[in-house]
Amino acid sequence: MIFSRLHAPRAIRRARLVLASVVLASAALLAPAGAAAQGMGGDPTLAQTLFEEGRRLMEAKSYAEACPKLAESQRLRPGTGTLLNLALCNEGLGRTATAWGQFKEALFASKKEGNAAREAFAQEHIDALEPRLSKIQLVAEGTPGLLVRIDGYDIPAAALGTPIPIDPGSHQVEATASGYSVWSTTVQVGESADLKAIAVPKLQPAPPAKTTTAPRGPAAGGDAGSAGGGGGGGLRTAGFVIGGAGAAVLGVGAVFGILAAGQAGDAEKDAALCPGKQCSPLGRAEIDAAETKALVSTIGIGVGVAAIGAGVILVLTSGRSGTEGASAAGARPGRVQARVVPLIGPDGGGVGVLGAF
Q: Which of 165, 256, 268, 308 could be 246's S-S partner, Cβ–Cβ 3.0 to 4.6 Å?
């Protein structure tokens, strides 16, 4: 039997067996009823059923199946008798620290109830378990806000440095603190009187969170005077483009001017269209068309000339802006900016260059 010591004299063992039988029998009869008398909530029928099934399995030494049933019965209808049986089940399962703690709890309850038999029964098992208890001792360095857990359960700061009874087996130790990286380790605790000392190191600051930044363009991150990357290179390119476009527009304006002059001259010289310098409607239409071409020519030539001038200005300015940008990068952020604006009036047109150079 698990509730007697092997080295005790036969008479003492026999007396203890009788005592254990009386205690467990009274627990089976009175555990749910005692809880009901205390006004506790829960399903009494289910609690009693689970208790009896747990006792049956425990007598068959099926502790792994019995313990959950007894634990649920205790949750539904807490009672000292059920708690004693649950402690015996965990003891049989090898959970020495859990069983020791439950026997301690049952001891205090038995004293409060004035049940000397249960009190003696619990004290006997406490005395037998204490020399076999395995323990874990956590020693932690000074990390602000340190929180240590064993198998997910928080360990109070006051318990650090004190050997804590723990069930044999594998356990996960974890240490966390706000702003620090998590530290963890696994410890294997022996079955009897094992002591594991775990040193929790000072936690390392957590790495800064990664942030996604937009790629910086040449104007924002490049050198103001670098080729193709700053204001000087950009203005030079714009100058050549605008100058080339101006030359093309100037050519188109010249062509329209030649066509307009020829068309108007032909209309005035044609006797059929303008007899005696008095033009017929058809001749007038020819002259109006010639005047339209002349207007297009005037605008084209004006825009072309202005664009060529603007292009020359941008090309010349690009060299100066690149040099000044490199020397004044620390004093004035930004770059040289310019905008080409078309100008069109009733009598002609052109382009203007606006911006800061």
A: 308
